Amino acid sequence: MSDVKLLKGNEVIAEAAIRCGCDGYFGYPITPQSEVMETLMERAPWNTTGMVVLQAESEVAAINMVYGGACCGKKVMTSSSSPGVSLKQEGISYLCGAELPCLIVNVQRGGPGLGTIQPSQADYFQTVKGGGHGDYKLIVLAPNSVQEMNDFVDLGFELSFKYRVPAMILSDGMIGQMMEKVTLSPKKPRRTEEEIIKEDGDWATTGKTADREQNVITSLALKAEEQEATNLRLQAKYKEIQENEVRYETYKADDAEYLLVAFGSCSRICSKTVDTAREDGIKLGMIRPITLFPFPTKQIKEFAKQVKGFMTVEMNAGQMVEDVRLAVNGEKPVEFYGRFGGIIPSPEEIRVALEKQLFNK
Amino acid sequence: MDVKEIIAKGDLVYEKTKVLTDKEMHYCPGCTHGTVHKAIAEVIEEMGIQEKTIGISPVGCSVFAYEYLHIDWQQAAHGRAPALATATKRLMPEKYVFTYQGDGDIASIGCAEAIHACNRGENILMIFINNGIYGMTGGQMAPTTLDGMKTATSPTGRTVEQNGYTLDLTKMIAPLPGVCYVARHSADTAAATRKLKRALKKGFENSMKNKGTSFVEVISTCNSGWKMSPVAANEWMRENMFPVFPLGTIKDE
């Protein structure tokens, strides 16, 4: 049986979870990502891999089930969309504080509030800058295709377990709902308790055996000195992640005079803008941050030497553009073009914005 | 010289369970938490399940339960312990999983998680310490605070007009088909604590029989929050709380 399929982005999240040996999924229905749990329920992996799939009573319960499962050293995940991810922020902060690995998928929709069910990228700040309380970071992966929805499930778990920092796939309603050809990952078995201990160390709450001390998973430290030590440890990890895990992609950027910066579905639209501009003899290129944390700051800074100016395109009111401006640090102009509320910008209107804001300025 | 060397082998009739650590408890003198901790620890030792038991501690005074019971622990966000326990038990069905929550944690902020875990019939033991007050934050009103009772946030006494009625969570949970065992106990006398231990043991045993959730409430005192001596607090509890929260086995299937 071929592992090449035509699937929706949301369905692929479910398929990839089963295939990568995920131990548990805990979710709550919300548009436009409900197909993730629907697909899991249809596949019934508890009969094959033994994976637990549970519909929780709320987003709050779902993320706390993830917390409990992560405490056991298991590969656990949840998925939701923007309003639901807001509800999960408490749990996300605790997961970060307790240094637990897990995977969270946000198939973004327009906000604030109940907003729309159409695609949006308005949760960049919430995801990258820390939506919950306390100093923390998530490892944030931004897919721009159904194939990357597949690939980032395994990658997200891998990075999350490597650093014991929660990973987030920051997708949107467009990637979640669209169908594309996808090569599914090879199947990996779920890890046994012995394998978990061998690979990750004996830190999880699997029962205090006679040969080890008790394992306690907590994010509480009443003494300020202890809490600061935790914060310093977290910051050191984030620095290491920033140094080692930056992922990005460039498109026709080698000789570019102008550079678009876009992530996720916007980068797909921008690639079309690049192509048409090139047909007209304009040297336009693109850089696509794949990891939003860690952000490709150095790479963007490097491009500031080469190009005349940048334009960031987002489906929000201008969020990632702040990080682009920090990277460019005033060396060159950094313009912004965005649509929001569920509106998807067209390649043509991006071109118009480029002409107005960058080329003819 | 060690105590055991002083006591002749045949004369040793009682020993502190090894499931309790030697850490000095932070609880106020007279607090019920210490007694209940010891009861749980003794049950775990008697059942020989120390290596297979995972506790989920709450937010509140008993957040530090992991300091005193020498088992693996997860410390939950306020009210979320049943969600953690759900995932833990489902991912590791061979383990004994229990939650330990106060009344603010379980009956207020975590009411949804508690009811839904019970309604799903999670094979866990839920322990509910009800002293009618928020202890750790300084004695504020809880859903379980009695009508007329003075607290930091009901300084002239709780009223129905302002705050509604005293919540009997255990009574709400008992009819749920997912719940196999519901009991309400106290730990104010040796006899009461022995009964409580039997209930805890039953709860742990049920959790391995796929019978559903076991729910044990312990009517407790918070003499600091109530601003009473330990003895007076116990008397007040018997006089005022027992009539509202009557002790006994409510459900045993």
Automatic annotation (TrEMBL), chain A:
UniProt keyword Cell membrane present: no
Pfam families: PFOR_II, POR_N
Domain Pyruvate flavodoxin/ferredoxin oxidoreductase pyrimidine binding: 15-208
Domain of life: Bacteria
CDD domains documented for this protein: TPP_PYR_PFOR_IOR-alpha_like
InterPro entries recorded: 2-oxoacid_oxidoreductase, PFOR_II, Pyrv_Fd/Flavodoxin_OxRdtase_N, THDP-binding, Transketo_C/PFOR_II
Domain Pyruvate:ferredoxin oxidoreductase core: 256-350
MF GO annotations: oxidoreductase activity
Keywords carried by this UniProt record: Oxidoreductase
PANTHER family, per database record: SUBUNIT OF PYRUVATE:FLAVODOXIN OXIDOREDUCTASE (PTHR43088:SF1), SUBUNIT OF PYRUVATE:FLAVODOXIN OXIDOREDUCTASE-RELATED (PTHR43088)
Name of the protein: 2-oxoglutarate ferredoxin oxidoreductase subunit alpha
Source organism: Balneicella halophila
UniProtKB/TrEMBL annotation, chain B:
Keywords, in A-Z order: Oxidoreductase
One example of a Gene Ontology biological process annotation: cellular respiration
Pfam families: TPP_enzyme_C (PF02775)
Keyword Secreted recorded: no
A GO molecular function held by the record: oxidoreductase activity, acting on the aldehyde or oxo group of donors, iron-sulfur protein as acceptor
Top-level taxon: Bacteria
Keyword match Acyltransferase: no
Residue ranges of domain Thiamine pyrophosphate enzyme TPP-binding in the record: 69-218
InterPro entries documented for this protein: 2-oxoacid:Fd_oxidoreductase, THDP-binding, TPP_enzyme_TPP-bd
Protein name as it appears in the record: 2-oxoglutarate ferredoxin oxidoreductase subunit beta
